[in-house]
C-alpha cells in the first residue's frame, strides 16, 4: 500500500499546508501594516516639512515685500536731495549701500557738514556722497582693496564730475596687528598723508575677509580724525559689525551710538563736548 494515499497522511499534510498558508497570510498582513504605517509616517513627515517651508516662504515673501517698500520710500526721499544728477546713478542694495542706509548717511552729512570724508569701501555711496557734499566742496577719499572696484568707482566719479575733489586710492589688504590680534586690512601707506577727517565711513573690508574684518579702522585711524569727528559703520545688523560698533563706543571717550533703528548704519557721535579721545 502506498502510504501517500493514506487518508490520515493526506489530512495531516493538508493541515500543515493550511497552517503554513495562514502563517504566510499573517506575515503578509503584518508587512502590509508595517508598510502602511511607514508610508503614513513618511507622509506625515513630508507634510510637516512642507508646512514649515510654506510658512518660511510666506515670512520671506512678506519680509521682502516690506523691505522693498521701505527701500522705494527711502529712494523717493533721497533723490530730491540731489536734483541735478548728471549721469546714471550706480545701483544700490546687495553689496552696495541700500537706499535706507544712503538716506540715513545723507542726514549725517547734512548735520556734520564735513570738510573731509574718508570712506573705506567705495562705490554707490561715493557718488551719492559727492552730490550731497557738492555745495560744501568736501574732499572725499575713497579706499578699495581690489583694482576692479577702484576702477568702477573712479569711472562713476569721472562721469558725475567729482574728480576734482575725490580721490580713489588702492590699498591692498595686508596683515595688521591690533590689540594682539592679526587682521587682513588696508595697506597703511594709503592713509599716511590724511588728517582732520570729519566723517569716517566704514563699509569695508568685506566680511568674507575674516572675523570682525572692519574692527581695525578706528584703532588705526583714530589719530586721523578731527575733533568732534563722526564715525559710521555699515551693516550693523550683522553680529560682527554690531560687536565692532560696541567696541568702538567703549574706545572713544565721550562718544555714543545715535540714530538706532533708522537703517543698517551705526553712527557714533560725540556727546556734549569733546572729540575723539582714546580711553
Automatic annotation (TrEMBL):
One Pfam family this sequence matches: Methyltransf_24
InterPro entries for the chain: SAM-dependent_MTases_sf (IPR029063)
Single GO MF annotation: methyltransferase activity
Segments crossing the lipid bilayer: none
Source organism superkingdom: Bacteria
Gene Ontology terms: biological process: methylation
Keyword Nucleotide-binding: no
Keywords (A to Z) from UniProt: Methyltransferase, Transferase
Family annotation (SUPFAM superfamilies): S-adenosyl-L-methionine-dependent methyltransferases
UniProt protein name: Putative O-methyltransferase YrrM
Lineage summary: Bacteria, Bacillati, Actinomycetota, Actinomycetes, Micrococcales
